[in-house]
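BUG: 3D viewer hangs when loading the predicted structure for this chain

Environment: internal workstation, default settings.
Expected: structure renders.
Actual: progress bar stalls at 90%.

Input used:
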Amino acid sequence: MGAGFGIAPFNWSYYFKAPENSIFRTGIYKDSYEYLDLNGYDYYSMTYVFPIYLSKMVEFKEKLVSIGIGIKYYSLLDKTFEGRVNSYYYIDENNTDVQDFEFYLEDTGRKHLFSYFVKLGLIKLTKKHNSFHFNLVANYSPYKLGKGWYKFHNLTYESYGTVEQNINYIGLEFTYGFTLSKRLKDKQVD
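Structure tokens produced before the viewer hung:
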């Protein structure tokens, strides 16, 4: 069991081949290559996090291995957010502020979320019976923090879709644990 503070980042990135006769090969883009790379707009959802975790340590090939599963409860600090990106640029002096891209994201109205996670890692004990933990973590939640849409303008074809912000990830975790047990500390002195 534990408690913490979490930040869920959101960013967008599009990398695509611009059509031969599109506005994406004129104006500010005229010196770019045939592939266009658009990205940016980070939004952070801040949460309190309360994990419940069950683990088992086993010795494997003279290494201490940790295997565990758990559930996390998230409480959003502010459940109302809305973000919008409108991208404009110029083609020439007569065509200023031409819209090329639109992106919209809003919260789903949920203040409380759950996720499930698994961990697999190695543990290294120090001479003072403290520990280093190196874990691979996979986290999955069926709930979404935000939903929205995007749309490209001024292409020779329709290009739009939906976006979602979630708290799913695969990551690395590094932890240092302190031993508070007097019995283990006394053993060290002997």
